[in-house]
Amino acid sequence: MFRVMEDQYGTHVFGKLVECCNSSQLLFLVAKITLNTQTFVGSLYSKPGANSAKGLIKVLKNSALVYEITSILSSKFVELMSDRIASNVILQCLGILNASQNQKSASHVIEKCLMTFGTKDVLEELVSFDKLWQIAGDQYGNYVIKRALQIGKSTNSRFYQELLERLEQDKDKFRTSYGMNVYNMVVTGVI
User: Would the N or C end of the chain have less CB density within 10 A of its end CB?
Assistant: First the structure.
């Protein structure tokens, strides 16, 4: 399976295979991955392997199985973020956070990235989201936004001001129970 994931043509086969799998077949694939985490992580350093993993994450985004994959990513995030290709798999978790029912596991990975040298990449990705306010008002996403504001300010990131401005524009859209803390941070400027 890992050879197929890492092959320049096999990655397309793997993608189609994953898209066609039923829940028990996906469970089998994820079980195989969790039994071979080192091989899985090793495959992420090649472009085809990273693309295969991103496709798998995309298919699993509404499944409880995504937690198994994001747990592996979370445990190796420092190593993965240090590689240009593998870091794209971590950044794929932002897409999960924006559009998934399993935001808790994705937000955990993203928060870890923010607290390391992946800060610039994550802040840049957050600023580029069209619907940043949805993440700010989300049950788990609001933690990511709060952490991004705190870390962005403390590191004097150039993306901090952009993030703050984007949130300021749409602040009324995330003035909900989950987004209230982010709202208060934006309105009062106390971060």
Answer: C
